[in-house]
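quick one, two chains, predict together pls
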Amino acid sequence: MSEKPVFGLHFFPMKPEILYVYLTNTDDPITVKEDNGEFTYYLNGGYTVKLKIMEKTDNTVKIVCTFTSGQQVSDTEEETDIVLPCNECIKIAAKFQEYSEEWGTVAKKLLRIFDSWELKAEDVVMAALMVSFSYLFRMTDKENFEDTLKWYIGALTVATSSYIHYATHQFGPEIAEIVKKVSSEVKQY
Amino acid sequence: MVEKCQRCSELYEEILKYGTQWVGLAKQLRRLLDTYYSGYTFDDVAKATMALSFNYLGRETNPDNIGEKLDRQVDFFKALGEFYVHYFAHRYGEDNVILSLEKVLKK
C-alpha cells in the first residue's frame, strides 16, 4: 500500500455497542474488532496506524488516529478525529425503516428481555423467526395476501443483507464466496 | 370424514427438522407479545422478531460456521414460507394464492 489509509467505521443498527473499523482504500480491506477501545494496524510499506476510541454514542464515534510511516514515528504522526459511518450500513438501516417505524422499539425491548435470560442462540433464532411468521399469518387476509407477502420478502431481504454486510465487516471479504453459494441456492428455490 | 393433508405433515416435519427445543421458547415469546405488546401493529412485531432472529444468528456466527448457519436459516425460512403459502392455499384456494405468488415473484 503506497497511500495513506482511509478509514470507515461500521455501526450495526441492532448492536450499537459494537464498533468495527476497516480500511476503505485497499483492495483487501482489513477489519479489526475493537479491543478495549484501542488497536493497532501494521500495514505493508512500513505504515503503522493506531486508533484510540475517545468517545462513543449510539450513532457516532470520535477516534484519535495516529498514523506513522517507517521508523520515523514522530515525523509523520498526526491526530485526526474521524466520524465516518459506513455508507452501506446507513443504506441498510434506512431500508429497514421503510417497512415500519415502530419495530425498532419493539426489537430493542425484546433484545433486552432475551439478553437477560440465559438462552441458546440457536433456539432464539428459530423461535423468533417462527413468531415472526405467526404475526405474518395474523396480518394476512385474502385481499392483502399478495402485498403482505411482498412486504415480508422485502423485509427479509433487508435483514439478510444486514446480516451478510455485518459478517463481511467482521470476518472480511473471504466470506463472500460462501454467501455467493448460498445466494445461488436461494435464487434456484 | 376429514382427511389429513400429506403436504401439511411434510412441511411440519421440515419445520421441526432442526429439533424442537425452540418450540417452548416460541410459545413463551408469543405469550409475552400477546400480553404486553398488544399496542403495536402486527407488522411491527413481525419485523421486530425477524430482526431478533437475525441478531441472535449474528451472535452464533463465526467464519467457520457462517455457511452452515446461513444454510440453516434459509432452510428454516423456506419451510416456514412454504407452510405459509400452503396454509393460505387451503384457506383461499390454490389458484388465487398461486396467482398472487407468481405476481410477487415476478416483481
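The CA atoms of residues 16 and 76 of chain B lie 9 Å apart.
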